[in-house]
Predict the structure.
Amino acid sequence: MDDLLAKYGQGIKDTLDPRFLDGGTVDGKIYAIPTNKEIGESHTIMFRKDLVDKYGFDVNSIETLEDLEPWLQTIKEKEPAIAPIWLSGSGSDTLGYFDKTKESMKENFRYELVAGAPAGIVLDTKTDKMVISSMESDTAIYRMKLYGDWFSKGYINKDAATTKTSTEDAFKAGKTWMKFGSDKPDSDKEDSIATGIELVKLKGNEPEISTASVSNSMMAIGRTSIDPERTMMLLNLLHTDPVLVNLIDFGVEGKQYVKVEGKDNFIKLPDGIATRADTGWAPGIEWMFGNQSLTYLWEGESADKWEKFKAYNESAHKVKSFGFNFNTDAVKTQVSVVSNIIKEFRPLLETGSLGVDKVLTEYNNKLKANGIEDIRAEVQKQYDAWKAKQS
């Protein structure tokens, strides 16, 4: 896309942080245009503000996951109808989303996920070696054992390993008081508007720029596109034209939203409408398309939200493996089998549902028997070759 970007994408080049384009670049060539949004990642847990206020909890007092335990005990005892923590197996519905245990803080986020590799392989930044997290990362093993302890104390829903109800849906249904989310500026306000429930959030870790964080929302032009030039013009408009961006994001003024009187850049729901979903247009795609800083602000959001985003992006730092992508071709059979093993065991390990030591031993034995060492060696080989080319 380099030539197309140069000819028809000047607006993109003028407004997009150059670091974003690294996410769509392979071997020095641009293949996709990232969304102009937060460049780094930082995760948090959000809570119902009414219950935080009711029990006098102070979100600023929480530095690590363990600091939450008195809160969880209070909710368990005094709000028996809801789960202190709701988990649903794997993905973002795990406490690993808020990776601030006492052990991880001591290590200062020592272990990095590797783009393209199975989740069990991580980079130990202290040794610059690939390790298997469930065997060699003390912080990962400690975290899984903490989950087991909390599950045994009744802080986690009993059907965590098997339920199909996500944390988000459980929260909306009143089955829990917490949900996972991004710690980007005003994310608690965005989610409060989306759910119709006022939320407060914990402070996440400092934002980190990884290969995944700059490439998790991009738009490309299909190889068989009949008019790539016009397509690039459209991509450029998504980064420069606020009318188009807000139409896609929020729908039609007067139907899906109305302007706040005296504040042309602020919008709110029409009278009588409780949530965005009730308007008939609530795709929740603001983070997917074009230049997010062109979007309207919802009433209640900070007037300086986009200035906060700029400061947030400027504070983000690159992880050690930024720019590296693992090519699985040499070990694709092993990757397929190991990925299925991870999928099988992760709900048990990430929810503490069964005896962690027993499950962890069985899990590690299966990984060893099915090629995890082959994958580790190949990732290390490619990483070392990539590193040698970096100036």
